[in-house]
């Protein structure tokens, strides 16, 4: 899939790599941003670290930055907030625009779009702050079965997520979710294999990268195992039957396009063991770029190095109001 690139790093101007931020995923974002910064500088890009938690965004214009690589994760970095600020300043940025970022960050809104498009996603129950009484929480197993998943709808990296196997554990799981979000999302548990599939590009030209199969340790695929241990096995090539991988890529592209994503993204899915049906869990519009991250792994399998990936994404940076740029 790799295509020759003809990108003059000097033409990209002074570049801010936005990293850190104020979300619960700050630590991961700092790691992602450090990797991106090093990669861009190695390619001759005039790139500089910029942490919105420590500096005001208006400094981007004052200090002559020409475009931004968003390596922020979670709230205020992946949810349309920083995208809106950059849009107002007329600074091109990597990844999806305001609307797609905001929708994709909210798992409930994402599910509504996917269900309207006929795309497969696990059954769910959404509890707004005024719907979280004892009876509503106790009713979840009847609606979703057991085990079930409780998660904050606007967080990532498995933060605040609990697998509930007994109804008696529901109140504690809800309390854990409420630490991160005023809403609660209950989701049907899909027994099977966890996979992920990145996408590069926009609209009809968007292309799915190779699928990665995730084989977690017995403790599960939690925040710690995602970023700070080597206990998880990542299989790319996935080892899935070719027809099954193609179908997953088709579904992921449809999910990506339905949300209006651009630049890049990564969909997380489960394959139900009983019938091999894939189910979409979420769409990440600012995926991780750490040493444990999956988009670089998949891109590498497609013949795209980490450095080429960063340069390609940066060259495609734009605002919502700008025409798509050809890299």
UniProtKB/TrEMBL annotation:
<dbReference type="InterPro" id="IPR000291">
    <property type="entry name" value="D-Ala_lig_Van_CS"/>
</dbReference>
<dbReference type="InterPro" id="IPR011095">
    <property type="entry name" value="Dala_Dala_lig_C"/>
</dbReference>
<dbReference type="GO" id="GO:0071555">
    <property type="term" value="P:cell wall organization"/>
</dbReference>
<keyword id="KW-0961">Cell wall biogenesis/degradation</keyword>
<dbReference type="InterPro" id="IPR011127">
    <property type="entry name" value="Dala_Dala_lig_N"/>
</dbReference>
<keyword id="KW-0573">Peptidoglycan synthesis</keyword>
<dbReference type="GO" id="GO:0008716">
    <property type="term" value="F:D-alanine-D-alanine ligase activity"/>
</dbReference>
<dbReference type="Pfam" id="PF07478">
    <property type="entry name" value="Dala_Dala_lig_C"/>
</dbReference>
<feature type="binding site">
    <location>
        <position position="282"/>
    </location>
    <ligand>
        <name>Mg(2+) 1</name>
    </ligand>
</feature>
<dbReference type="GO" id="GO:0005524">
    <property type="term" value="F:ATP binding"/>
</dbReference>
<dbReference type="GO" id="GO:0009252">
    <property type="term" value="P:peptidoglycan biosynthetic process"/>
</dbReference>
<feature type="binding site">
    <location>
        <position position="284"/>
    </location>
    <ligand>
        <name>Mg(2+) 2</name>
    </ligand>
</feature>
<keyword id="KW-0460">Magnesium</keyword>
<feature type="active site">
    <location>
        <position position="293"/>
    </location>
</feature>
<keyword id="KW-0133">Cell shape</keyword>
<dbReference type="InterPro" id="IPR016185">
    <property type="entry name" value="PreATP-grasp_dom_sf"/>
</dbReference>
<keyword id="KW-0963">Cytoplasm</keyword>
<keyword id="KW-0067">ATP-binding</keyword>
<dbReference type="InterPro" id="IPR011761">
    <property type="entry name" value="ATP-grasp"/>
</dbReference>
<dbReference type="GO" id="GO:0008360">
    <property type="term" value="P:regulation of cell shape"/>
</dbReference>
<comment type="pathway">
    <text>Cell wall biogenesis; peptidoglycan biosynthesis.</text>
</comment>
<comment type="function">
    <text>Cell wall formation.</text>
</comment>
<comment type="similarity">
    <text>Belongs to the D-alanine--D-alanine ligase family.</text>
</comment>
<dbReference type="GO" id="GO:0046872">
    <property type="term" value="F:metal ion binding"/>
</dbReference>
<dbReference type="InterPro" id="IPR005905">
    <property type="entry name" value="D_ala_D_ala"/>
</dbReference>
<keyword id="KW-0464">Manganese</keyword>
<feature type="binding site">
    <location>
        <position position="268"/>
    </location>
    <ligand>
        <name>Mg(2+) 1</name>
    </ligand>
</feature>
<dbReference type="Pfam" id="PF01820">
    <property type="entry name" value="Dala_Dala_lig_N"/>
</dbReference>
<feature type="active site">
    <location>
        <position position="157"/>
    </location>
</feature>
<feature type="binding site">
    <location>
        <position position="282"/>
    </location>
    <ligand>
        <name>Mg(2+) 2</name>
    </ligand>
</feature>
<protein>
    <recommendedName>
        <fullName>D-alanine--D-alanine ligase</fullName>
        <ecNumber>6.3.2.4</ecNumber>
    </recommendedName>
</protein>
<keyword id="KW-0479">Metal-binding</keyword>
<dbReference type="InterPro" id="IPR013815">
    <property type="entry name" value="ATP_grasp_subdomain_1"/>
</dbReference>
<dbReference type="GO" id="GO:0005829">
    <property type="term" value="C:cytosol"/>
</dbReference>
<feature type="domain" description="ATP-grasp">
    <location>
        <begin position="111"/>
        <end position="315"/>
    </location>
</feature>
<keyword id="KW-0436">Ligase</keyword>
<feature type="active site">
    <location>
        <position position="25"/>
    </location>
</feature>
<keyword id="KW-0547">Nucleotide-binding</keyword>
């Amino acid at each position: 899939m790799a295509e020759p690139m003809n990108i003059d790093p000097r033409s990209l101007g002074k570049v801010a790599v936005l990293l850190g931020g104020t979300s619960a995923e700050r630590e991961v974002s700092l790691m992602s941003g450090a990797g991106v910064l090093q990669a861009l500088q190695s390619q001759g890009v005039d790139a500089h670290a910029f942490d919105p938690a420590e500096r005001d965004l208006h400094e981007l214009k004052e200090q002559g930055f020409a475009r931004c690589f968003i390596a922020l994760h979670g709230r205020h970095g992946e949810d349309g907030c920083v995208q809106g600020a950059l849009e107002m300043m007329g600074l091109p940025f990597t990844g999806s625009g305001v609307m797609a970022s905001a929708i994709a960050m909210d798992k409930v809104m994402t599910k509504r779009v996917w269900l309207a498009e006929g795309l497969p996603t696990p059954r769910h129950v959404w509890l707004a702050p005024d719907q979280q009484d004892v009876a509503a929480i106790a009713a979840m197993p009847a609606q979703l079965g057991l085990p079930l998943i409780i998660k904050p709808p606007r967080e990532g990296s498995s933060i605040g997520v609990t697998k509930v196997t007994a109804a008696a554990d529901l109140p504690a799981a809800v309390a854990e979710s409420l630490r991160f979000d005023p809403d609660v999302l209950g989701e049907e548990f899909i027994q099977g294999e966890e996979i992920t599939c990145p996408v590069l590009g926009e609209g009809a030209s968007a292309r799915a990268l190779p699928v990665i199969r995730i084989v977690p340790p017995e403790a599960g695929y939690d925040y710690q195992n995602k970023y700070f241990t080597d206990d998880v096995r990542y299989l790319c090539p996935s080892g899935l039957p070719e027809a099954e991988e193609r179908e997953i890529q088709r579904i992921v592209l449809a999910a990506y396009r339905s949300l209006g994503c651009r630049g890049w993204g990564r969909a997380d899915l489960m394959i139900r063991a009983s019938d091999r049906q894939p189910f979409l869990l979420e769409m990440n519009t600012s995926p991780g770029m750490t040493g444990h991250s999956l988009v670089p792994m998949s891109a590498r399998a497609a013949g795209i190095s980490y450095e080429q990936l960063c340069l390609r994404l940066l060259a495609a940076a734009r605002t919502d109001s700008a025409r798509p740029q050809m890299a």
